TrEMBL record:
InterPro entries: GH28_Enzymes (IPR051801), Glyco_hydro_28 (IPR000743), PbH1 (IPR006626), Pectin_lyas_fold (IPR012334), Pectin_lyase_fold/virulence (IPR011050), RHGA/B-epi-like_pectate_lyase (IPR024535). The keyword Cytoplasm does not apply. The keyword Cell membrane does not apply. Residues 1-21 form the signal peptide. Residues 456-476 are annotated as: Disordered. GO terms for molecular function: hydrolase activity. Keywords: Glycosidase, Hydrolase, Signal. The lineage of its organism: Bacteria, Pseudomonadati, Pseudomonadota, Betaproteobacteria, Burkholderiales. This is Glycoside hydrolase family 28 protein. It comes from the Bacteria. Residues 25-77 form the Rhamnogalacturonase A/B/Epimerase-like pectate lyase domain.
């Protein structure tokens, strides 16, 4: 509750600060909504003018082609109904800047719309921000096709520069929403990184138009604090609502957690999962709550925790409740060995000339620092119908998934699935309609499962079921 109060206090202060602010029409600075004129300079000039007295920038109805725009302190970029900001397809229209990408700090093209090291800013309205990203999707697939046979799957995401749609970086007291339609992002749609007191209220994200773009995450909350996300409607081709906190040695060096986050009242229509923790877990997660989330049948997993044995980090005081899953194949998946070909970077010996961030990605992490520790997780009021599998849970013997509380479950699934390497799990009021029971292995003190819903397998070497399932469903 303290997190909610802090976020709303920040929002009220921001609204009070912008009340009565002067309006600046970018068309007066030369912007043309003809879909072909490059308007980066004209719109940015209007934003810079508004920054002098904390004003609002608007545009007349039309489609405005643009490269990267930077919303300044005290400025609201208002994208009204009938207005589209259309992303340039030229990568040179997105200046390369320091940021964090997929868990490591590096230089990368700026987003189409940026709040970069600013405060008290907003991007709002009922208009459209369209990344027109297919050209960037295609460039990625071309690169990856050549990389995978060389054992470089892990490098392809970093070597194919693609602009995000909106970036909020190292900023505070920022609002995004108001009914915005966010379309066809070249890479992640809304990336909130190293930021505090951020509100996302009312966004519609549609990335699967004209193709299914790789890594087109919906909303990524990355090593940030005091974040509220609500009233999101998401269809993407990767993680939809995602918590991140850094990758491997670089993420542990930065060591910034994601804390005090509320995600609520949202629907995920398409994507890799409904709500995801990871795979970038290095800085850890603390005090996260997600509730009133609907996940539909195009989404393979309802609730997903994913990490790798080089990530490290932790998750504690995580609360997920009041989820409705309609035909979602897997209700709960936890894997600590996610997508090995992507997660574990190894530079082939024959490659001598490579970018510096390859060395960062391939820096070894000691085993004792590499395994993420998730504990004290509460999941309740979960309704799932038409699932293929209820649980796919894989921890590590040396770091079992500890103290998970699952209450008021109403799950109908063909298979119970499995719970491996878990300790002190408590099921309360679990109504499980399963054609096949749940397999338990190295799962000590799992209590409260209904009779005949589970079987205890003898401890023995086993295949890693998470490895197969994630390689089959790797959408990135």
């Amino acid at each position: 509750m303290n997190g909610i109060r802090l976020v709303f206090t920040a929002l009220l202060l921001m609204c009070a600060a912008t009340a009565g602010a002067k309006t600046y029409n970018a068309n007066d600075y030369g912007a043309k909504g003809d879909s072909t004129t490059l308007n980066t300079k004209a719109i940015q000039t209007a934003i810079d003018a508004a920054a002098k007295d904390g004003g609002t920038v608007v545009l007349s109805p039309g489609t405005y082609l643009s490269g990267s725009l930077f919303v300044k302190t005290g400025v609201t970029l208002q994208v009204d109904k009938g207005v589209t900001i259309l992303g340039s397809q030229r990568i040179e229209d997105y200046p390369v800047m320091p940021t964090r990408i997929a868990g490591i700090e590096m230089r990368w093209p700026a987003a189409l719309i940026n709040v970069y090291e600013r405060k008290n800013a907003a991007i709002t309205g009922e208009g459209t921000i369209d990344g027109d990203g297919k050209i960037f999707w295609d460039s990625y697939w071309t690169l990856r096709k050549s990389y995978e046979p060389r054992g470089l799957r892990w490098a392809s995401d970093y070597d194919a520069p693609r602009p995000r749609l909106i970036q909020v970086f190292n900023s505070s007291h920022v609002k995004v929403g108001g009914g915005l339609l966010l379309r066809r992002s070249g890479f992640w749609t809304l990336h909130i990184c190293y930021s505090t007191d951020i509100t996302v209220d009312g966004v519609i994200i549609r990335n699967n138009e004209g193709g299914r773009g790789p890594s087109t995450d919906g909303i990524d909350i990355d090593s940030s604090k005091k974040v509220l996300v609500q009233h999101a409607d998401i269809a993407v081709n990767d993680d939809a609502l995602c918590l991140k906190a850094g990758r491997d040695s670089d993420g542990q060096r930065v060591n910034r957690s994601t804390e005090d986050v509320i995600i609520r009242d949202s629907i995920v229509r398409d994507g890799a999962a409904g709500v995801t923790f990871g795979s970038e877990t290095s800085g850890g997660f603390r005090n996260i709550e997600a509730y009133n989330i609907t996940v539909l049948d195009q989404v393979p997993v309802g609730i997903l925790f994913k990490s790798a044995h080089t990530r490290g980090g932790f998750g504690e005081n995580l609360r997920l409740h009041d989820f409705t899953m309609k035909g979602t194949p897997v209700v709960l998946r936890i894997t600590m060995n996610w997508n090995p070909s992507y997660s574990y970077a190894e530079i082939p010996k024959e490659i001598k000339d490579y970018p510096p961030y390859w060395k960062v990605l391939a820096t070894p992490v000691p085993k004792e620092k590499g395994i993420a520790h998730f504990h004290d997780v509460r999941i309740w009021n979960i309704r799932a119908a038409g699932a293929a599998t209820a649980f796919e849970v894989d921890g590590y013997k040396e770091a079992p998934l500890q103290r998970f509380s699952l209450e008021n479950l109403d799950i109908e699934a063909r298979k119970g699935g499995h719970i491996y390497d878990a300790s002190d799990w408590q099921f309360t009021n679990a109504r499980l309609t399963l054609a096949e029971p749940i397999a338990l292995e190295d799962a000590t003190s799992v209590r409260g499962l209904p009779a005949a819903s589970s079987i205890v397998k003898p401890a023995a070497p086993k295949a890693d079921p998470s490895k197969k399932s994630f390689e089959e469903q790797d959408k990135t």
